[in-house]
Amino acid sequence: MKVCSKCGMEKELDAFTIETKNKDGLRPWCKECVKEYNTKYLEAHREENRIRSANRFALHREENRLRCKKRLEEHREENRLKCSEYRKKNFEWLNEYDRVRYITKKQERREISKRYIKSERGRFVVAKTRDRRRRQLGFNVLFENELDEEYEWHHVDDENVVAVPVDLHLLYLGKNHREKLIPIIKQLYPDYEWN
Ligand SMILES: [Zn+2]
Ligand SMILES: [Zn+2]
User: Fold this and answer.
1) Closest ligand to 4 CA?
2) pTM for this structure?
3) Is the pLDDT of residue 32 over 90?
């Protein structure tokens, strides 16, 4: 048994994290106290972290965008070749049985992927990929607001984006996505001027 120096309770040794530096090989605070402290710390610094990451993002946005675009353009042909070479090479490695199966299953796979794209998860993945592609091509952020994991970019048109909460964004995926999100954007960004 060991007494936690934070809460003062006597607890079993496995209630403490190992800390080889200390004399008894354990941390002075019990696991629960450490957990509580970490949670409180994160909460207290949440806003701060958010602002910091938003600033960092804004600072490097243009830089990243250009670098991305450049790299993509520079390596376009190279990447394409690498891809098809890789595919060819691996196809040769497949033995006869696998090759036959590969060809006969091609149609089947196509059907499966068609179904997948129509499913909820598939639609989500497709939208994500499309978003990523657009991002690589570059876009314009309309409002300098924070963007953490709970937010993602929504294209109000083909080149302008605003950050919207992920939940809301996913709720309105699919047909008429942009129109459906207009009222939400109006609420989030009252300053946005619609054309
Ligand atoms: Zn404790
Ligand atoms: Zn969107």
Assistant:
1) 1
2) 0.30
3) yes
